[in-house]
Design goal:
The complex is a heterodimer of chains A (about 350) and B (about 350). Chain A has about 350 residues and is mainly alpha-helical. Chain A has helices at about 10-35, 40-55, 60-85, 95-110, 120-145, 150-170, 205-225, 225-235, 235-240, 245-270, 285-295, 300-325, 330-345, 345-350; strands at about 1-5, 350-355. Chain A contains 14 helices and 2 strands; from the N terminus they run E-H-H-H-H-H-H-H-H-H-H-H-H-H-H-E. The longest helix of chain B has 17 residues, at about 165-180. The chains are: A mainly alpha (about 350), B alpha/beta (about 350).
Amino acid sequence: MITFVKRPEPSKIWTIATPILAVVLTMILGGLLFAAMGKDPVAAIRTIFWDPLFNEQFAGYSRPQLLVKAGPLILIAIGLSLGFKAGIWNIGAEGQYIMGALTGAAVGLALYPLDAWWIFPLMVIAGAFGGFLWAMIPALLKTKFNTNEILVSLMLVYVAEQILASAALGFLRNPEGNGFPGSRNLSQIPAMSNPELITGTGAHWGVVAAFASVVAAYVLINKHMLGFQIRLTGESPRAARFAGVKDKLLVVFCLGTAGALAGLAGLFEVTGPAGQISIDFGAGYGFTAIIVAFLGRLNPIGILLAGLLLALTFIGGELAQFMLGLPSAAIQVFQGMLLMILLAMDILVNYRVMIVKKESA
Amino acid sequence: MKRRTLLTAAAAASALTLGLAAPSFAQDKTKVGFIYVGPVGDGGWTYEHNQGRLAVEEHFGDAVETIYQENVPEGADAERAITQMALSGADLIFTTSFGYMDPTINVASKFPDVKFEHATGYKTADNVGVYSARFYEGRAVQGTIAGMMTKSNKIGYIGSFPIPEVIRGINSAYLHAKKVNPDVEFSVVWAYTWFDPAKEADAAQALIDQGADVILQHTDSTAPQAAAQKAGNVITFGQASDMGEYAPLPRVSSIIDNWAPYYIARTQAVIDGTWESDNTWDGIGAGMVGIGEISDAVPEDVKAAALEVMNSIADGSYQPFTGPINKQDGSVWLAEGETADDGTLAGMNFYVEGLTGEIPQ
């Protein structure tokens, strides 16, 4: 019979091997699913994983789009991972993302039609600040009144969504929009737009910020005292307190950083790919980023790869839909399958599989 | 396949590969793409657009290939979905939701040889036409039936987003209900979604709990129908699609979007090389808006009154917005005998006199 024996410490080989194994396993199971639906499984898998990167017809466009899609996910997930490592559960990044976009856009639109070089940088600062302030609500409630930050941050997502709807319909509505909801198109106003920096790469300032945040988080976690305190708090809050970690300050730092990064992601999205404040601007990046953070095992490099992988399945899934006529529900099942297998495979990292012969009694 | 010239530098990289990939396509098969906001099985808005697509396939047979992508969010993702479809060699692309307006215009500027048709918007370009249906004509018929059949004099209305198209429908339904029943009152609930069965069911239930015995909906699922059926003694109308599975009660009639003739005509124009950007807004007369069979649950006199409204609109002798009509604040909108012009209707952002509540701002 098969038993699982806990490893003294996580296996290094399996940590690297499981994601690859999981992708292969998903391809096989997903292929069976697509075959059962009467589609060519090889073509489907190739369309999802290969075509966005290498299809000569699409790749020139899809490859940069991977960065566009992964950028906000990585930026938000990096912020979340700091808190998660310390046992501080910010579930409301979606709200911080929305509020960052709103604050930044509001600052920019208040200055319209002024054209000056400093407007965009000012909007970036405002965006980060908006997300930061929104995250300060659960942070202060937790440190002052010991409320649960999971609930508070999550509920604030719905508040942010209502403010977003009211902004799109009211105070940020485009006065030249014929009565339709939605703000002016920021990406078409030169002083406020966040364009592609190098043609054909898809990289806008948000992607640059995402890569910078990966490096910064790596240094912080591995080389800095604060990173050590974060890890220590996560592993043993009591020990951390004895070691002189100011736990309240840490809550403020972790939530604040996550909020500011999510706010930045929102600002870069609203001035770039999304272009405008609209009722459904919040596309769920804040929630997907939680998956990215855990998929990346809260490790900055892991988060980078996880963000790119998720972006690949999104874009490949879209291609598979109209190239092969696969319904979007089948693509979602496939994506869910991938995430579940990836997480389930974790058992191989922490446990050793042993085949034990049954001894006769 | 025609060689496409991509103007912007962003897509320049793909231009080369596109030229290389071109021979792999059948030489003269016209490719028509559709971008859907909901799933093709929503039973409402997207379902009817997909019926239009299937009609195109049936009409042209092997001469035309159709592709579609469903569940495309109305934000940053839409632009990628449309671009990828254009890259895949589509000659004509229908983008079937209001929120695709700016993305459609953006993508169209990069693919001058591809024709685009955007539903329910107002921005056109040399290669972008817009089309919509005068759903408010159908609302006049609904309002007549609703006003005559309600016993509680309370009519519930599930609005999606407070955009002119939806506001027009509310005004039209209210004016015609009021005409046959001066005591009628409308309650409007904004669901902020086009398709969300759970939210729509909640909204319907809330309205029923407030005493409404007629539910009108501008959302696309059949959930309100199910809620009304469960409550009993509540009548509903099919939205976008016939929703005939709920006849004869609660569904007593419906507004059916019939896109097939338009889709076939526009595809033919692309094949013939005669396509030009247009602004089509057709109603009951042209067959773009259909009134679903009025069920036996409706008394004969009500049915006769409804059919009279329908026929007078169809033959052009009556316009649903004919004065005297005041705005909600009491100011005069249309004087006696005056009819609304298309410009005002297209951007309608006010309630008519007698409606309570405010349009969300």
